[in-house]
Amino acid sequence: MNNIYLKISILFVLLSGLFHNSLTAQETLNLTFPEIQYNDDLLAKIRLEANTIQGEKATEIRYIKFAESPRTFAQTVEGGTDEPYIQARTAYQIVFPHSTIMLDAGMDEEVHEFFGNGKKQPYFPSANDSVQQALRQAVKILITHEHGDHVAGVLRTKYFDEIAPKTILTYQMLNTLVNKPQMPQLKTDIEKVKNFVTVDFYDVLPVAPGIVLIKAPGHTPGEIMVYTQFENGKEYIFTGDVSWSYVGIEERKQKPASQVKRIGEDAVRIQYQLDWLNQLPSKGVQLIVSHDDIIQPQLIKKGIMKKGFILR
Ligand SMILES: [Zn+2]
Question: Does an H or E element contain 120, and which?
Answer without folding.
Answer: none
